[in-house]
Predict the 3D structure of the following.
Amino acid sequence: MSTFIKILITFFIIVTFNKESVSQIVSIPDSIFKDYLVNNSTINSNGDNEIQLTEAQNFSGTINVSNKNITDLTGISSFTSITGLSCFNNQLTFLDITSNVALTNLNCNNNQISTIDFSSNSSLATLSIKDNQISAIDLEENYALIYLSAGNNLLTNLDISNNPFLNHLSCYSNSLTSLDPSNNLLLTSLNCSNNNLTTINLNFNTALTELSVQNNQLHNLNLNNNTSLTSISCGNNNLISLNVSQQASLNYLSCFGNHLSSLNVNNNPSLTQLIVYLNNLSSLNVSTNTMLERLSCYDNQLTNLNLSNNTHLKYIFCHKNILTELNIRNGNNSNIIDFDARNNQLLSCIEVDSISYAVASWTSHTDNTSTFNTDCQTITEAKTQVTENFDPTIFPNPTKSMLTVQFGEIQEQVEGSVYNNLGQLVMQRKYSNINQIHMELKGSSGVYYVSLNSGKSKKIVKVIKEE
C-alpha cells in the first residue's frame, strides 16, 4: 500500500471520528440551562464544557432548574432516564417531555406553556402544571397518576376517568363547566373552585377529607356520603340548603355568599372556623361548637346570637344583622382578637365578661345604641317591670301599608322606629300622651321591625308588608 493511500485512510478515520464526537454533543441553546447542567458533576461526569449524549442518557435522577429565568429547555429530550423534572417559575412557552419516558414527577408551574403532551409519560405519579396557559390536557395514558395540580389555566374540559389512583386534584380557576370524579374512589382532596360548574356528583368519593367548590354556580351539594370531610369551602354559589350533619369531624366550614335560610351545625363539635356571611340566616345555634375560634356571620338576618358556650372564640364578626340579643359572656373575652357588632341598630345590650374591658376594647366596634353589661336579661326584666302596662299590640300583620299600634293606657312619651330586614332605619318619630298611633310602611314588600320605646320599656315586633 502506497504512503499516499495510508495518509488518505488515516485522514478519513480522523474526520469520521470527529464527526461522530460532534454528533454526540447535546444541543442546549439556553445558556442558563446549559450552565446548570455543565456545573452539575453528577450529570457532567467528564467535567468538560459540554453535555455528551451518553451523559444525558445515563443520568437517572432529578433535574431542578426552577426559578432561573430559563426560556428554553431544548436538550431535555436527551435525558431519557430522568425520573424528576422541576422547572417552575421560569419563562417557558413550550415543553417537550415525550422522550422522558421514565418521568414520575413533573413540576412546571408558573410558566407560559400553552400545550403539553403527556402521552409518553405513563409512569407519572405527580404532575403540577398550575399557573400556565394550558387549554387542554390528555391524561388517558397516565394511569399511575396520584397527584394533579392544574389550577389557573384555560381548561374547559378535564377527563380524569382513567386515573383511578388519583388522591389529590386541584383544578381551580379554569373554565370547567363539568367535572366527573366518579372513577376516582381514592380522592381525598378536591379543589375545583372558581370554575363554571352547575353540578357535581361526589357520591362515590367517600374518602374525601378536603373539598373546595366555591365560586361556581352550584344549586345543590349532596355530601351525605362524604362523612370523612374535615374541610368544606362552598362559598359564592347558589345553594339554598346545605346538610353537614354527617361530617362529625368537620373543623372548617365556609359557605358564605349563598341563599341559605338555615344551617344546622349541631353535629359538628370539632368546628374551629365557621364562615357564613352573606346569606339569609335568621337564626344560628353554635352552642355545641365549643372549639369554635372564628365566627363570621355578618350580613344575615340574625336576631339572636348566643356565644356563651364558645370559650375558644378569637374572631367574631356579626355586624349588619338585626340582632336584638347578643351574648358573648363566655369567660374568654380577653382573648378575642377582633370583634364587630356594628349595624345592629336594634341591639341595646351586649352581654360580656367585663363591662370595663368591653368599653375599653370594643366601643368603636358597636353602635351608639348598644351598651355592655354582664346580665342583659336582668336589665330587660327590670325595664319591663317598671311599666307593666307597656304591652302594645300592632295590627294588621301582615299589612299592605298602614299599621295601628294600640297601647293599654295612655303613654306620656313613645318613640316609634321602623327598620328594614338589613337593620337600616327607614322611619322614626316621637309621640306624646297617646294610647294609639298609626304608622305607614312606605318601602317595598318584605320584612320590617317596629321598635317602640317608652324610655322605660321597649318592644320590638316583626311585621310583614305584602304587595
